[in-house]
Amino acid sequence: MRVSANKIPGREGLECWESCPYPILLRLRLTTAGLFAEVWDSNDGTPRGTAAGQDDESGRGLLLVGLCADEWGHYRSQTGGKVVFGRWILPSSWHRPAVRVPLASA
């Protein structure tokens, strides 16, 4: 599969597959405030839950994050599109200092 030249606004260096008509980006962050999952897409519309049918390929995201996250929401991205996020509060025993792994030199 070839990589498309269509770049996501504000995400220099990231490219999407030609077969992906609606690219998304997923970012996971672990902080002392919890685990954050953020999903970006290029749609500027306000996210709305829908009643997905058994064979539908979309329409379950907000339902799932609402059921399992401690809190969730959305915001407009400065580069266009929107981000839907969820936060999971973790036990304090999971809080550890970040470990930085050096990148291998080429």
What does the oligomeric state look like here? single chain
H/E series, N to C? EEEEHEE
Number of alpha- plus pi-helical segments: 1
Mean pLDDT: 76
Class by alpha and beta content: mainly beta
CA(first)-CA(last) distance:
25 Å
Strand percentage lies at 25-35%
> How is the largest sheet built, in terms of strand order?
3-4-6-5
| Main sheet record | 4 strands, antiparallel
Please give the share of residues in helix.
under 10%
- Unreliably modeled segments: 1-9
Total beta-strand segments: 6
Overall shape: it is: globular
Output the radius of gyration.
17 Å
Description of the molecule:
The protein is mostly beta strands and 106 residues long. It has a domain at 25-49 and 57-92. The protein is 8% helix and 35% strand. The protein has one helix and six strands, in the order ββββαββ. The chain has one helix at residues 61-68; strands at 3-7, 15-17, 24-31, 34-41, 71-76, 82-88. A four-stranded antiparallel β-sheet has the order 3-4-6-5, with helices on one face. It has a two-stranded antiparallel sheet with strand order 1-2. The longest helix is centred in the middle third of the chain and has 8 residues, at 61-68. The chain is globular and about 40 Å long. Residues 1-9 have low confidence and may be disordered.
Provide key terms for this protein.
mainly beta; four-stranded antiparallel beta sheet; about 110 residues; globular; about 10% helix; two-stranded antiparallel ribbon; disordered N terminus
SSE blueprint:
Layout: E1 3-7, E2 15-17, E3 24-31, E4 34-41, H1 61-68, E5 71-76, E6 82-88
Antiparallel strand pairs: 1-2, 3-4, 4-6, 5-6
